[in-house]
Write a structure and sequence with these properties.
Blueprint (H helix, E strand, L loop, with lengths): L19 H12 L2 H4 L1 H19 L4 H11 L14 H15 L15 H7 L8 H9 L9 H14 L5 H8 L1 H6 L1 H4 L7 H8 L7 H14 L9 H12 L15 H15 L10 H13 L8 H14 L9 H8 L8 H16 L5 H6 L1 H6 L10 H4 L2 H13 L6 H16 L5 H6 L1 H7 L8 H10 L8 H14 L9 H14 L9 H8 L8 H14 L7 H14 L14 H12 L11 H14 L7 H14 L8 H8 L6 H16 L5 H6 L1 H13 L6 H8 L8 H14 L7 H14 L6 H17 L9 H14 L7 H14 L9 H8 L6 H16 L5 H6 L1 H7 L8 H7 L8 H16 L5 H6 L3 H5 L1 H6 L9 H11 L5 H16 L5 H6 L1 H7 L1 H5 L6 H8 L7 H16 L5 H6 L1 H7 L9 H11 L7 H20 L5 H10 L3 H38 L1
Helix pairs in contact: 3-4, 3-9, 3-12, 3-13, 4-9, 5-8, 14-16, 15-19, 17-19, 23-28, 24-28, 27-31, 29-31, 32-33, 32-34, 33-34, 35-37, 39-40, 42-44, 43-44, 45-47, 55-56, 55-61
GO molecular function: fibroblast growth factor binding
Keywords: Glycoprotein, Membrane, Repeat, Sialic acid, Signal, Transmembrane, Transmembrane helix
InterPro entries: Cys-rich_GLG1_repeat (IPR001893), Cys-rich_GLG1_repeat_euk (IPR017873), GLG1 (IPR039728)
Length: about 1200
């Protein structure tokens, strides 16, 4: 500064000021950098300190002796204050100078001056009076509320000013720091006489090991920063900005000169406001900006040198950092760490924030950071970028990004530097105001949503919550500012950087993640894995999701993912360095690129490395919890989420909602939801919430497939197969069913089915997308090929195998067959509203109530039953209930013959009652319509149209014939007119229905009232052994309804054809058949005729019960013959052949025929003779 330039008064001390000094100072202030300009006063200040120290020490060495000479004639404290001083100030200065001149001596002391005596007595301990340095520090470090006399102020100021203008002090500095100068090569090379040497020592004071030199250099700086006017060139560079910003007067006397540190603080605040682009901000000149930053930089090691901060925080320093030694920025860091303590004064907090904002603009303002990272910055060329403006190169954010990039690339960055980086990354996350872009671009969001949350990172997390869209739309510029800040702070590398998250999640970390080393990046992953579990607390959940929202949008912010996948990303996704961006592949798109390659097959190629795939799967599993953690999904589906899913607020519901409305989504959203669903089908563990819900089932039944690193759809298939195990809870069952319902929308959503049948679908079912339609298409093709006995099946073996799995799974829940479900939805609500979906229970309910179904639903159910009867493996209820019985009795049977096998073993003692009941249900169903009995249909293919065409003509397609065709065939069986194969099948049906009346649909339809009134006990019996039929036969005379009577008469007629059709009679006569009719084969009434002959033969003694039952049957048949005469010759012949008086009737008929023959013969001869006589008479 050129203050000495205006000193025209004669010095009171006869120590001449070198004539060249004003010229040199003038030249320096106008033409050299601030760093150089500040060097001269620093040299002189060393001399001042040395001089004052000498008076205390007594001058024991040569260097001190030299200062004692100068001390006899100290710089003129009464010299004028330079340009800008007012007249009153000049007069006061002259008076002070005169006072000093009268007391000049070798041991001159400030304490001897009368103008400062009162202040000295009041403020400074007496033992310090003999030390000018101690007096100077005591008086200039006064508290703000304590004033000292104006004359003393100006005396001190002029004293310091004149000390800083004497070039002779450089020689003393050389003497004191001789060893240090030789150690620091760059300082040894400086030219003497220009003040550069001491400036170099100041810049390198962190490397000074000599205690005396270090103390002098440090103390020297504490004086010069007490007043900005003592800094060479500062006033010239910043005069205009000081006046414009009203930062204080630049003239002595207009303001307390010892508070001039506030002027620098005011300029610093102006610089901060300019960076934040606050409204109406004044733009500080570039030269002044550099001067301000340089002052902040040079005061970075000792907080005493920042006068404003020192005075503002002196009490706080004693409160929080009493044991922290000054120097190397330690006090600054200590105060920064306590900035948001409740006991911290607001003025100190404000001063600390300003200091931090300057650090954010220039990292060199932090002494500890600049020192710790100096070599690393040079090593990784973080401050050598020709394409970047110098101002941006020094930004804290640039330094952090550059060094973080080195760390993420696996380069070695010193531990000390990483520690400093950690502190400042935490600082950025704690206080949003340290990021000018946040202040500038998020101003409205802060005012509207986040005011009053300044401390401990709460405002930043509030902005993150706004950015997630939890409140309302956020400006893109604010969103970008938040994204940039998260990248700079990089909290993904160490959760402790985010103080709000750290405090919120401390309890969760201590319980759920205690096995992970503190500060490990896997802590965040661990927290994500415990999201929505009982160990998670609500506050931690919110903070975690707020942070993860931004980490999810830049793959580099997950350090583990970046470490494992940076090679794959460069190879497959054309990414650049950690802190470099690309418009072609933005950071948010890289992860999408990675997961597209994560599930490629070997044939497809371009796959991820194993380690990278594991990490991609980990991220997918964690982010599937919330759609907002999937940037691409949220971006493309924003409108659809609002339209369809606005009420879905619970965890995981939004994605389920989108999947439910897949057909309604816009194209872009449908594509991304489809892709994600396709990935889930291959790796269902992506559904983290579902996996947690299904943990018991997985541990019990699916642990082997769950432990496999490659899922390939096996785990979901296992869960579906075990969906009804006792370990299955409601949440898991609902989740598995939902996934099944989603799968039917597109065959690609079933990974195993897609893999096995993709080629078959393209060849046989092109342009079909819905899975249910594809399954129908393929299964129809398989069925047709089978029925037509094709030489080669068109559907591949692997596809047929998986097709069977899909068909069985679809049969489990009616909702998995949309066409059937839609057709029967109203019937379900009306008839089965209390029946739960799953286990085919709803379908079973509809089957049991099929007579009450609507026409459309009835047809669909009939079609379903027809398919199930052809292929019983698709009958889910039958296969489930009879699972163990199938293993016991039908292991060797083909799938299509399972029901037939079960029917044959139905009455076995080992048969499970529930399975037996289910078999009976299926038999009842089969007997309602011949089309539901594929074996009968095939055996009677020729007989049905031949004998029962009239019945077929009455029936409608896709509706049951209610057993009419089978009843028709039964009658023909009794007439013994069926083909052998058909007769065998009807015999089986007759035998089965004779034991259980429910197997005869016509009997059940027409005799319901009679059964309930005449045979209630027999009908209520659990085991049906033909007692109901016997009851109806016995009460035949009491039956009033003709239709029922006819059915009972038909039973009687059928029983004549085969004794097996009459189980009660067969049981009663079993021994007699064995003894008397063993040689006679069953069928065609042969055994029945044998018993009748035995009954009439007095030589044969039948069992009493058999004899009684036979006599009853004869009476019944006689009554039947009376009430039901033969309808035709065939019926008449059948009645004769089955009549007990068959021989008598046949004898009578034979005699009649013989007589008729004889009469014919006689009449024939007689008419012949008469005719001949007539001819003879005519001849004559």
């Amino acid at each position: 500064m050129n203050n000495s330039k205006g000193n025209s008064s004669t010095p009171l001390f006869p120590v001449p000021i070198s004539p060249s000094v004003p010229e040199r100072l003038s030249w320096l202030s106008g033409s050299v950098k601030m760093a150089d300009c500040i060097r001269v006063p620093l040299i002189l200040l060393v001399m001042c300190i040395f001089s004052l120290a000498h008076q205390v020490q007594g001058g024991e060495n040569n260097g001190v002796g030299r200062l004692s000479v100068i001390g006899d004639n100290p710089a003129n404290p009464a010299a004028g204050p330079g340009p800008g001083a007012n007249q009153g100030a000049a007069e006061r200065n002259q008076a002070a100078g005169a006072s000093l001149s009268r007391r000049r001596s070798t041991g001159w002391k400030l304490s001897d001056e009368a103008v400062c005596r009162e202040d000295l007595t009041r403020r400074c301990p007496k033992h310090s009076w003999n030390n000018n340095l101690a007096v100077l520090e005591c008086l200039q470090d006064k508290k703000e509320e304590s004033e000292i006399a104006a004359d003393c102020n100006h005396l001190l100021w002029n004293y310091k000013l004149n000390l800083t203008t004497d070039p002779k002090f450089e020689s003393v500095a050389v003497e004191v720091c001789k060893t240090t100068i030789s150690e620091i090569k760059e300082c040894a090379a400086e030219e003497l006489g220009k003040g550069y040497l001491v400036s170099c020592l100041v810049d390198n004071r962190g490397n000074i090991t000599d205690y005396q030199c270090n103390q002098y250099i440090t103390k020297m700086a504490s004086i010069i920063y007490s007043d900005f006017r003592l800094i060479c060139g500062f006033m010239d560079k910043c005069r205009e900005d000081i006046n414009t910003l009203h930062c204080g007067s630049i003239s002595t006397g207009e303001k307390d000169v010892h508070s001039q540190g506030e002027v620098i603080a005011c300029l610093e605040k102006g610089l901060v406001r300019e960076a934040e682009e606050q409204p109406g901000v004044h733009r500080i000149r570039d030269d002044c900006k550099k001067a301000i930053m340089r002052v902040a930089e040079l005061s970075s090691d000792d907080f005493h040198l920042d006068r404003y901060l020192y005075l503002a925080c002196r009490d706080d320093r004693e409160r929080f950092c009493e044991n922290t030694a000054a120097g190397e920025g330690r006090v600054y860091k200590c105060l920064f760490n306590h900035k948001f303590e409740d006991a911290m004064s607001e003025r100190c907090r404000e001063a600390l924030t300003t200091r931090q904002k300057l650090i954010a603009q220039d990292y060199k303002v932090s002494y500890s950071l600049a020192k710790a990272c100096k070599s690393d910055l040079r090593k990784y060329r973080c401050n050598v970028d020709a394409n970047m403006p110098r101002a941006k190169e020094t930004r804290l954010s640039y330094l952090l990004l550059c060094l973080e990039a080195a760390v993420h690339r696996g380069r070695v960055v010193s531990g000390e530097c990483q520690g400093e980086m950690m502190d400042y990354r935490r600082m950025l996350m704690e206080d949003f105001s340290l990021s000018p872009e946040i202040v500038l671009h998020c101003r409205s969001e802060i005012e509207n949503h986040c005011s009053g949350l300044h401390r401990k990172g709460r405002t930043l997390h509030c902005l993150m919550r706004v950015g997630r869209g939890d409140m309302e739309a956020i400006e893109p510029t604010c969103q970008k500012a938040l994204k940039d800040l998260v990248q700079e702070a990089d909290p993904g590398a160490d959760y402790r950087i985010d103080r709000a998250l750290n405090e919120a999640c401390e309890s969760v970390i201590q319980t759920a993640c205690k096995h992970i080393r503190n500060g490990d990046p896997m802590i965040l992953s661990c927290l994500m894995e415990h999201l929505y579990t009982e160990k998670m607390v609500e506050d931690c959940e919110h903070r975690l999701l707020e942070l993860q929202y931004f980490i999810a949008r830049d793959w580099k912010l997950d350090p583990i993912l970046y470490k494992k996948c940076q090679g794959d990303a460069a190879r497959l996704c054309h990414t650049h360095g950690w802190n470099e961006t690309s418009e072609l592949m933005p950071a948010g798109a890289v992860f999408s690129c990675l997961y597209r390659h994560a599930y490629r097959s070997v044939e497809q190629g371009r796959r991820l490395s194993r380690d990278c795939k594991v990490e991609v799967q980990r991220i997918l599993h964690q982010r599937a919890i919330d759609v907002k953690l999937d940037p691409e999904l949220q971006r493309r589906c924003m409108a659809d989420l609002g339209k369809w899913c606005s009420e879905k607020s619970e965890t995981g519901q939004e994605l389920e909602c989108l999947q439910d409305h897949l057909e309604d989504l816009v194209s872009d959203c449908r594509d991304v939801v489809g892709n994600l669903t396709e990935l889930e089908s291959e790796d269902i563990q992506i559904e983290a919430l579902l996996m947690r819900a299904c943990e018991p089932v997985i541990q019990s039944y699916c642990h082997e497939v769950a432990d496999n690193q490659i899922d390939s759809g096996d785990l979901m298939e296992c869960l579906i197969q075990n969906k009804h195990q006792k370990e299955m809870n409601e949440k898991c069952a609902v989740g598995v069913t939902h996934f099944q319902l989603v799968q039917i929308k597109d065959f690609r959503f079933s990974y195993k089915f897609k893999t096995a049948c993709k080629e078959d679908v393209l060849k046989l079912c092109p342009n079909i997308k819905k899975k249910v339609d594809v399954v129908i298409c393929l299964s129809t093709t398989v069925r047709n090929d089978t029925l037509q006995d094709a030489k080669e099946q068109r559907v591949s073996v692997k596809c047929r195998k998986q097709l069977r799995v899909e068909e069985v799974e679809m049969s489990e829940d009616i909702r998995l067959e949309p066409e059937l479900y839609d057709s029967c939805k109203q019937d379900i609500n009306r008839l089965c509203q209390n029946v739960a979906f799953g286990n085919a229970q709803v379908v079973e309910c509809l089957k049991e109530n099929k007579r009450q179904l609507s026409s459309r639903c009835h047809q669909k159910i009939f079609k379903l039953q027809e398919v199930e009867m052809v292929d019983p493996e698709l009958d889910y209820q039958l296969m489930r209930v009879c699972k163990h019985m199938i293993r016991r009795f039908c292991t060797e049977s083909e799938g299509k013959n399972v029901l037939q096998c079960l029917k044959q073993n139905k009455n076995s003692e080992l048969m499970d009652p529930k399975c037996k009941q289910m078999i009976t249900k299926r038999q009842i169903t089969q007997n309602t319509d011949y089309r539901l009995n594929p074996v009968l249909k095939k055996a009677c293919k020729a007989d049905i149209p031949k004998f029962c065409q009239s019945v077929l003509n009455k029936g409608a397609t896709d509706t049951e014939l209610e057993g009419q065709v089978i009843s028709c065939l039964k009658l023909k069986y009794a007439d013994q007119r069926l083909s052998p194969d058909c007769e065998d099948q009807i015999r089986v049906i007759l035998q089965e229905s004779a034991l259980d009346y429910r197997l005869d649909p016509q009997l059940q339809i027409h005799c319901t009232q009679e059964i309930s009134s005449l045979c209630p006990e027999e009908a209520a019996a659990q085991e049906q052994t033909g007692q109901v039929e016997e009851c109806l036969k016995i009460n035949l005379l009491k039956i009033k309804q003709e239709a029922c009577k006819k059915e009972v008469l038909n039973m009687l007629k059928e029983s004549k054809a085969d004794i097996f059709v009459d189980p009660v009679l067969h049981t009663a006569c079993a021994l007699d058949i064995k003894h008397h009719c063993a040689a006679i084969p069953p069928g065609r009434g042969r055994q029945m005729s044998c018993l009748m002959e035995a009954l009439q033969d007095k030589r044969v003694r039948l069992q009493p019960e058999c004899k009684k039952r036979l006599q009853d049957r004869i009476d019944m048949w006689s009554y039947a013959a009376k009430v039901a005469p033969a309808e035709g010759f065939s019926d008449l012949a059948m009645q004769v052949m089955t009549s007990p008086s068959k021989n008598y009737i046949l004898t009578v008929i034979g005699v009649g025929v013989a007589l008729l023959f004889l009469v014919g013969m006689f009449c024939g001869r007689f008419t012949k003779r008469v005719t001949q006589e007539l001819k003879d008479s005519e001849a004559f």
